[in-house]
Amino acid sequence: MSFYSVRKPITKTDSKPEVNALSIVFDLPSLADAKATFNSLVSSGKDIPSDPTFFNKILHSFSSVSCLQDSVLFLNHIFKKYPAFCPNHFTYHILLKQSCSLPDEQSLLPVTDILNLIKDSGFPPNVVSMDIAVRSLCECGGETRAVELVKELAARNMLPDTYTYNFLVKHLVKNRFISTADTFLSDMKEFGIKPDILTFTIMIDNVCNSKNLREATRLLQYHHERDEDVEPDRNTLIYGLAICGRVKEAKKFLAVMRGKGYSPDAVTYTSLMNGMCRKGDALGAMALLEEMKKECDPNSCTCNTLLYGLCKARLLDEAVKLYKVMKNDTTKLETGTYGTFLRALCRKGIVADAYEVFDYAVETKSFPVVAGYSSLESTLKWLRNARERGVMA
């Protein structure tokens, strides 16, 4: 079996055939065969593009099946056989990504070797290099090595940007103990890098998703005490408490927020209402709406959340009242709310009102007409089948 496949190249009538890099695909990690293939390409008499992208694609294809050492040797062979090739940062980033993705590798030696190679080749590693390395390490479970690398490069005055920094924090919180992320934040402060609101929100959001609300509360208080100039997103914690069904705790935290001078906004109330509706307390969520109006105005998301919750709770009369208010304010319907409301109306046999809701959704351009009609059609089909089975009158 051939170790690579060659597709028919695109030819031009007024020049030599030009080679397409995608026509060369390596299937086996044989360095000797790869060199032979490249030699054949150079001596074929075909036009070879001068764009580094062409050679980068060939190198990337081989590196995807070979070991790191062979990839470096293959790159050196390309230089030797085709001196006109001018590499760029992307050329060496292919090797850098491979060095970070080695299975069962526990040290940073392969990564630092490639970084030194990049530097010695006249392409000093930059923030993009660091980002590629960190992301590649995290993708293969090497968060600990990623932290080590960031600190090592920071000691050389190469600091990560906000995106790389927060990406690593997210992976630490998700795949390691929260204390590991706390230690990383503390260590990076020595280099003048401080967490921002996105950092705290990422951390709180991840522990909320794991339903570790006690840790989320502790985390919020911890960072409030240590970084008073940065305010984490408290709405994330409210939402986390609410969707986990801990509505009472969410309300208590809301009271604590008020006591410390933080005014809840539409996102805060909507998050809490969402949790109450999930717990089956749609009427309680409606009562909270009146309380909300004293501090801020409800938005489209608030109204859709309540309408959806009322329909799920089979409180159609209350849902219709709320819909009329939304219609008066020309509030757009969200797709999920629209479909749920249609089914609730058809379940009661109020088909004419369902058509009216469809007309309103089209009028307000809540979503594409085709999507709205498709939901209406499927709902009516469901109603017809239910009647045929005698489930509904």
Oligomer description? single chain
Mean pLDDT, to the nearest integer, reads 84
**Individual helix count:** 20
Q: How many extended strands?
A: 2
What Rg is obtained from the alpha carbons, in whole angstroms? 30 Å
- Spatial gap, N to C terminus: 68 Å
Per-chain topology:
Elements: E1 4-6, E2 24-26, H1 31-42, H2 52-63, H3 68-81, H4 89-100, H5 109-120, H6 127-139, H7 143-154, H8 162-175, H9 178-189, H10 197-209, H11 213-226, H12 234-243, H13 247-259, H14 266-278, H15 282-292, H16 300-312, H17 316-328, H18 335-347, H19 351-363, H20 369-388
Antiparallel strand pairs: 1-2
Descriptive account of the structure:
It is a single chain. The chain is mainly alpha-helical. It contains 20 helices and 2 strands. Strands 1-2 form a two-stranded antiparallel ribbon. α2 packs antiparallel against α3. The longest helix has 20 residues. It is extended. The chain starts with a strand and ends in a 5-residue tail after the last helix. The N terminus is likely disordered.
List the defining traits of the structure above.
two-stranded antiparallel sheet, 2 strands, 2% strand, extended
In short:
The chain has helices spanning 31-42, 52-63, 68-81, 89-100, 109-120, 127-139, 143-154, 162-175, 178-189, 197-209, 213-226, 234-243, 247-259, 266-278, 282-292, 300-312, 316-328, 335-347, 351-363, 369-388, and strands spanning 4-6, 24-26. By secondary structure, the protein is mostly helical.
